[in-house]
Structures
1.
Amino acid sequence: QVHLVESGGGLVQAGGSLKLSCAASGNVFRVNEMAWYRQAPKKQRELVATITTGGMVEYADSEYAESVKGRFTISRHNPNHTLYLEMNSLKPEDTATYYCAMGLSARGGMDLWGKGILVTVSA
């Protein structure tokens, strides 16, 4: 019923910037939270950040999360349920497929996932 579509990925040189967008289509009655995840080649999918309808941001407790914090900014436009990820000072290790996700229930967890979009950062 509801679909998430990411856009804005591509190839960028180290030090450059990209802004990812995630558009939600279909009937969205209520959204608890949205999030960006990423999965680098040969690695597990990792959480980048989550954001609630009220705008509260939470970053993953991991080594890579410490790396992106301060360089990446998650935001959303609630009326359209559009999610954004502003990425600055990109590094080759940021290369990954980035996924948009949506949690519908206050119980937590992600219920809907986008197909993902590739971000490649060259040295």
2.
Amino acid sequence: QVQVVESGGGLVQPGGSLRLSCAASGRIFRIGAMGWYRQAPGKQRELVALLSSRGTPNYADSVKGRFTISRDNAKGTLYLQMNSLKPEDTAVYYCNCAISSYGSTGYADYWGQGTQVTVSS
């Protein structure tokens, strides 16, 4: 079994900061690309930041210069540092990981349960 769990969400004032964490655990053989997505009420889920298996980051235009994606390969943990937060950043943030488990040669797509980020004064 593989499990992906996000944490670090909460309520923050505009201009504030939060750091989200995503921990992958279980029978993990390899971890490939990892990314953060978000979904606001009435909106489709959108990509926020993506980190390739080789560590190359990409960001949505709306968060460039404010968010930073990183990971600890040894611990299988993904981070999203969120600075200069705006009300429009309010959403449920989801972690997504491509993971291969023992007994399988291919990768499967795993999603976390989501963590709520609310930016409001």
3.
Amino acid sequence: QVQLVESGVCLVQPGGSLTLSCAASGSIFSINAMGWYCQAPGRKRELVARLVSGGRPNYADSVKGRFTISRDGAKNTEYLRMNSLKPEDTGVYYCNVRLQMIGTFVTNDSWGQGTQVTVSS
């Protein structure tokens, strides 16, 4: 089994910054990609940023230049640095990891529990 544990500050003022982290643990053979998704009130879950192993990060247009996704391979941990936050960034942020577990030959998606981020004055 794989567990994803998210952490980060939940309430921030407009223009502020915060960093979300997501640590994957369990019987992991390899991680192919890591990403962050956001579900705003009344909307479906949408991609915010994604990083494929060996590739370049991909960002939603709304966060380009403000958010940065990174990964610590040794710790199987991904981060989302969020700068210049806006009220429209408010939502539940989910980390996603596409991985291969030990003893298997297929990749699967695992999701974190979600972190409520509220940008408000």
